[in-house]
């Protein structure tokens, strides 16, 4: 059966599985961690948990995490799965995040994920809370109205960039190569060099063509590392010797 690309997860993370995945991307919760979960799958599922199930503690942790780690997101893929999401609240949230991080032009398309009227984060009392405490500056003027006293922001609740790079293999590769499908593919091969291109593509939601190229490049470097480096000048000497034997 041929490879068929899908940009969205086959199933959404939820419950204990989501909690472990959140810990796996550096969010401080009391649970065991999933190793190297897909970052975009985790942040999207976390936003759904926070917005659709009114879990403001989870949402606060996510927004703090985004303040530290937005540069490490694969913006193209996240935009694609957000814009196709059925929940208007989820789309409004990510549109608000894109406006907050507007200096990062990778999120320009995500800012257009929601075009309706502003949505209140709280089921009741948003106007009263905003009048009393003002708006959360991270959401000021955004399509999601958030009072300033609702989402706690403590940097100590999430791992730093350096800490997450030590812990999460794909994140480390994204720091090295840029947040892309290619970086995630390199991370997968670092974990299991025997993976075939189709499996690499499935695991990372990337294209088969990119996976094939990454696998080829991996083999090239693997071969280069396993052989003795040629002596400088050796190649040119061989060419000269060859030319001498072929002259009239």
Shape descriptor: elongated
Total strands: the figure is 2
What is the SS-derived class? Answer: mainly alpha
Number of helices: 12
Question: What does the secondary structure layout of this molecule look like, with pairings?
Answer:
Layout: H1 15-24, H2 39-52, H3 56-69, H4 75-83, H5 88-100, E1 119-120, H6 126-133, E2 144-145, H7 161-167, H8 169-177, H9 181-191, H10 197-204, H11 208-225, H12 234-246
Parallel strand pairs: 1-2
Helix pairs in contact: 2-3, 7-8, 8-9, 9-10, 9-11, 10-11
If you had to describe this structure to a student in words, what would you say it looks like?
54% of the residues lie in helices and 2% in strands. It is an all-alpha fold and 248 residues long. It folds into 2 domains: 15-157, no CATH class; 161-223, no CATH class. Strands 1-2 form a two-stranded parallel ribbon. Helix 6 links the parallel strand 1 and strand 2. Helix 8 crosses helix 9 and helix 9 (181-191) crosses helix 10. The N and C termini lie far apart (57 Å).
What keywords describe this structure?
248 residues, mainly alpha, 2 domains, two-stranded parallel ribbon, 12 helices, 2 strands, 2% strand, elongated, disordered C terminus
Provide a quick synopsis of the model.
The protein contains 12 helices and 2 strands, in the order H-H-H-H-H-E-H-E-H-H-H-H-H-H.
């Amino acid at each position: 059966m041929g490879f068929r690309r899908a940009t969205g997860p086959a199933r959404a993370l939820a419950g204990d599985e989501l909690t472990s995945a959140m810990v796996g991307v550096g969010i401080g919760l009391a649970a065991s961690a999933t190793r190297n979960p897909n970052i975009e799958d985790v942040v999207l599922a976390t936003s759904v948990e926070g917005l659709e199930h009114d879990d403001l503690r989870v949402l606060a942790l996510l927004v703090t995490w985004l303040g530290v780690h937005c540069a490490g997101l694969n913006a193209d893929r996240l935009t694609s799965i957000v814009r196709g999401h059925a929940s208007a609240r989820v789309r409004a949230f990510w549109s608000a995040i894109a406006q907050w991080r507007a200096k990062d032009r990778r999120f320009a398309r995500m800012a257009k994920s929601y075009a309706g009227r502003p949505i209140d984060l709280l089921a009741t009392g948003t106007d009263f809370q905003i009048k009393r405490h003002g708006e959360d500056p991270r959401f000021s003027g955004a399509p999601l109205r958030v009072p300033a006293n609702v989402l706690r922001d403590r940097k100590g609740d999430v791992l730093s960039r350096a800490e997450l790079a030590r812990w999460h293999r794909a994140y480390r590769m994204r720091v090295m190569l840029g947040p892309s499908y290619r970086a995630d593919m390199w991370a997968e091969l670092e974990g299991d060099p025997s993976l075939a291109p189709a499996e690499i593509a499935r695991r990372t939601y990337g294209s088969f063509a990119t996976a094939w190229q990454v696998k080829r490049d991996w083999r090239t470097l693997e071969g280069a590392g396993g052989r003795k480096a040629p002596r400088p000048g050796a190649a040119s000497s061989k060419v000269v010797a060859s030319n001498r034997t072929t002259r009239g």
